[in-house]
Amino acid sequence: MFVEDESWETQSKSLIILKKTFRKTFRSLGRITWRDKVGIRRKSSELAQKKSRKRNANTLKTEQKHRRLLLWSGIAFLSFVIATGILYFVAHLNPKAEGDGEKRVTLAVQYVGSSACVSCHATEGSAWLTSQHHDAMAQADEHSVLGNFNNARFTYAGLTSTFFKRDGKFFVNTEGRDGKLTDYEIKYTFGVSPLQQYLIEFPDGRLQALSIAWDSRPKKNSGQRWFHLYPKERITHGDELHWTGPAQNWNFMCADCHSTELRKNYDPATDRFQTQWAEINVGCEACHGPGSNHVVWAKSQHPLSKGEVSSNGLTVRLDERRGVAWTRSIADSNPVRSRARSTEREIEVCAQCHARRGQIFEGYTPGKPFLDYYRPALLRRPLYYVDGQQRDEVYIWGSFLQSKMYANGVTCSDCHNPHSGKLRAEGNSLCAMCHLGAKYDTPPHHHHKPDSTGAACVACHMPTTTYMVIDPRRDHSLRVPRPDLSVTLSTPNACNSCHNERDARWAATQVKHWYGRDPQGHQRFAAAFAAADAAAPDAQAQLRAIAADTGDPAIARATALVELGSIGPAALDAMTAGLRDPSPLVRLAALQSLGGAPPDARLRLAAPLLADSLRAIRIEAANLLAGVPADQLSIEQRTALERAAQEYVASQRYNADRAEGRVNIGNFYARRGDAENAVTELKAAIKLNPNFIPAYANLADLYRVLGRDTEGESILREGLKIAPKNAILHHSLGLALVRMKRRDAALVELEQATILDPENARFSYVYAVALHSAGKSDEAIARLKKNLADHPNNRDVLAALVSFYRARGQGVEAKKYADRLKTPTDNGQER
Fold first, then answer.
1. CA distances (Å), 713 to each of 502, 729, 748, 756, in order?
2. Residue 165: which H helix or E strand, with range?
3. pLDDT per residue over 516-527, tens digit each?
4. pLDDT digits (tens, 9 = 90+) for 476-513
5. E strands along 56-158, which residues?
6. pTM for the complete prediction?
7. Cβ of 576: how many Cβ atoms within 10 Å?
């Protein structure tokens, strides 16, 4: 099968439907419901800043701030009284006897809304009002809309869109999914700074994010304008990235991070959504969990039960920093946490949205295990560079887990105020809260003029990458600049991001001159990942060393395991150790790497993880063992596999609104021998999204297994009508034609695949073999030599050259390649 069960984000590498690497168009966009359509909002500072066409911004901002606080205070107090009164009343009408006659309240915890929090937590509430969390999503009205809807026009790809108002509502006249200009009402705003997007509702419950966004930066910073999120491309209604397509669908792509307690509510039978939220934006309970029990506690001023004396009715206590101090070591003046961080609670609460991850289950609440609901992406290309620097949008968590800060116990709220979202201090003062300014905020350390841009700690240790055209985001791996790696591995570095008129060698020379060495830093896995990318002979040895080194970040060790590739005795030993690792990321990655292991080894090693404490690991084990015959399993193993298999199918059913989810279910059924349901799911994927090309390839492959190549040919040609330049479809069709003994037609398709994807070593190898089988030995050998020049360590190509030269009686040439093939690899096998 062509599509493995990867997280939704990391699937993009293998799902070749997009022109470029699949990018999310939005940030880790949010959560939303239909039942809470009224929320209390504020005019953002950005709105007040540039609404001068209507009023004096500064005066209005001051007046509205006072009005907001008065409004919030009144509403919060009233909401608090009503909520606590109802909950308290219900609690006392429904007492339940427990133990020796003590009465306790039994309540299903519920979401009560942020307005119930601010009367007691006024300081935190006021800070939240100024945050981007508060403005993550809102109904489109005069208070929330920042863009110019005064008949403003914007032209892109030869088409002019018009933004206007009608009857107090906001509209855009733009190209629809049929290619025709149509008026669409703006239902919601999405985000606030540095850009704001707009959501359009369709009758089937879909919300689609317009690809034309508003630049909300001040005009002096080139803002206050409409712009397109794909300015260098030509995205029209037939393109998979068009705003009406699945890639811009809010319900799946964005919703679960911009609202509180989202329920997607997709019905596959009708292909409709009834998405709901508890609060339209990112409210208090998105991070603190549902608050009804806390409201009851606040009213009653006594614990809910003996077992909850310290909980105060809270869903989770985010108190990992309470009583913690950072001091400086006498030995080197570096900061030391007064006690080690013992939990991941706070970091995982942030990770629910600030991680590149796929959602595998609904209903996450703070305090629950992250891997019960999400499957995070690892440090793989094209999301990250080989040294772990951010490349695509990865939303911080994966970067932070690589950092020395994380290793030493730093949490998100050490630097960020969690309620306002702002930094706890400005500039280098933030770092000086822990790091000795007299040591680090000096020219001998940063080698720049004091107070200059280059003297900023973040300029060197947290360089930015700009996404969505105008949104610079800092890399949270907090690394030392490594221009020496830029020289050898072509990775970016902070020095040349400013000094772009110089090359990396100049920067590396300067750094070495300043410090007398090439700084190494905390992240030391770049060479291993680069070797894996190049298929270097010693790549596996390097990867195994990373995987085994508990001093390396767990996310890097996990990445090393999935990069191992071919499985020999040494690699299998590394995977075996990974399956027993205390880090769930490492265990999950070890399972992912076992796909190429012999069936008996897969069963022996993966079966125990069917009962792992974390859902993501259990369903990965179920997917890995889906094809194991029942008679090879013990009764306990069959029971565990069936339970985990049900979880796996449920996780994919949750994402049944996506063709990817239906393909994953289809492949799972196919491995379990359920061909009928497998075909049904793969056909459903094609119907759901005809542009999702892997569905055609996987269905054709299933037909191959079933001996129905004629149907496979038909489905591949159907796919080629949609994507005539798709290399995988041409390659698959070529193989199908080979099996049907239609050699000449097969050669045409196999060659076309190599033309469309010239860097694919497998396509070139298969085409060469087909040429040789057709009696075209010279062409075959020439093709293999070219392939070997691009992929000098490719075992299949070397073996083919040995075979082809021997067939021609050219023993000397055959021996030359045989000697290269016999070179022992670090995996304990001959290459």
1. 54, 10, 14, 19
2. strand 159-166
3. 998 999 999 999
4. 999 999 999 999 999 999 999 999 999 999 999 999 99
5. 95-98, 102-105, 137-139, 152-156
6. 0.85
7. 15
